[in-house]
Design brief:
Layout lengths: L3 E3 L1 H11 L7 H8 L12 E3 L23 H15 L3 H12 L7 H19 L2 H15 L5 E2 L2 E2 H16 L21
Helix pairs in contact: 3-4, 4-5, 5-6, 6-7
């Protein structure tokens, strides 16, 4: 029998759909049979994808934010993400970078997450989901500003300038309905 990788969210939704009792906490039930770490879970024909525990930004050791070494495979995903981002294929860039982000346990993964959120903001802009643009731009800004002006060969300062200008233009309007979204600048990623 071939092994199928199933994200934990799929298991969650399965439990949510089969439990009718509102008092029954299916999340606790799932956790009671999920061993730690999750990747060692043995279900017939199913392996759960590994999740790295979430960590709040406030717990990051800023002195430890040094560029990490990308594996050749990660470097390929990273470069592909940059090329896709710069060609306006933001969803695809997000997907490429996510392959790196989901396997990085150290604080530097917040940098990749910042790039992912920037791509998500521009993807939302293309779909005219204006509240999503604002939320993702703020999240990208929050993460990217933690890093030095040049990180992993990317000119972070230049990205932040575009993000800051976009947020300033959006926030000076009294409501999102009054923002001229055609004037929101799209950043380009420059890598050395």
């Amino acid at each position: 029998m071939p092994l199928t990788v199933v994200p934990v969210a799929t298991i969650d939704s399965h439990f949510a759909s089969i439990v009718d009792d509102p008092v029954y906490d299916w999340r606790k039930a799932r956790q009671s049979w999920l061993p730690t770490p999750w990747r060692s879970c043995r279900l017939p024909g199913v392996a759960l994808s590994h999740r790295i525990p979430k960590k709040p930004l406030s717990s990051i050791d800023l002195s430890a934010l040094t560029p990490f070494v990308l594996t050749p495979s990660e470097e390929e995903y990273f470069e592909r993400g940059v090329a896709l981002f710069n060609s306006g294929k933001f969803w695809e860039a997000h997907e490429a970078w996510e392959e790196i982000w989901k396997n990085r346990p150290e604080d530097g993964r917040f940098f990749i997450q910042g790039l992912i959120q920037l791509a998500a903001a521009y993807h939302q802009l293309g779909k005219r989901v204006h509240r999503g643009v604002l939320i993702h731009l703020k999240q990208a800004q929050e993460r990217l500003k933690l890093f030095p002006a040049d990180f992993l060969g990317i000119q972070v300062a230049a990205l932040l300038e575009v993000i800051d200008a976009s947020l300033a233009a959006i926030e000076k309007r009294p409501s999102l309905a009054e923002v001229d979204w055609t004037n929101v600048k799209t950043a380009r990623i420059h890598r050395k």
